[in-house]
Amino acid sequence: MTALDTSARALAVKSLAKFGKSITLQSIVEGAYDPVTGDMAANTITSSNPLAIISDFKGAALMSGVIQYGDRKVTIAASGSVLPLPTDKVIIDTETYNVIAVKSIWSGELAALYELQVRK
Predict the structure, then answer these.
(1) Strands 72-77 and 51-56
(2) What does the pLDDT look like over 43-85, one tens digit per residue?
(3) Which domains occur in the chain, in start order?
(4) Which residues touch 71 (CB under 8 Å, ≥6 apart)?
(5) What's the CA gap between 64 and 85, in Å, rounded?
(6) Sorting pLDDT into bands at 50, 70 and 90, what band is 108?
């Protein structure tokens, strides 16, 4: 861990505490196959409530073709969070979004922020 890791991660948490909005991040783990019964076990859903900055993608990002109109950018602090996965869901107010991609923003050896591309 570098000196920048400590200060950048703390700054990310402080900024999100001041300007962020509470969201629900649902991590979904698919149930395992039981060869004896031939059934799938139920999925496990773990919810957390990080603070996030929510914004829209603009300009060149939309023109790249990877980002679709209506996709949102959700930024959360990496400190205290598990790495979100593309199988996860984000709930903003009453709207549910699927996580499409996750980008780590590094401060040195550790991620300071996670930037999620989410879509309805």
Answers:
(1) antiparallel
(2) 899 999 999 999 998 887 777 778 998 999 999 999 877 899 9
(3) 3-119 (2.40.10.270)
(4) 56, 57, 100, 117, 118, 119
(5) 22
(6) confident
Rounded Cα distance between 26 and 45, Å, is: 6
Rounded Cα gap, residues 114 and 88, in angstroms: 13
CA distance 119 to 38: 33
Residue 104 pLDDT exceeds 80:
yes
Distance (Å) of CA 43 to CA 46, 54, 68: 10, 28, 28
Structure tokens at 81: 């969070």
Tens digits of residue pLDDT in 3-48: 677 788 888 888 888 889 999 999 988 888 888 888 888 889 999 9
Q: Which residues contact residue 43 at a Cβ distance below 8 angstroms, ignoring those fewer than 6 apart?
A: 28, 29, 30, 31
- Which residues, other chains included, contact 20 with Cβ-Cβ below 8 Å and sequence gap of 6+? 50, 51, 52, 53
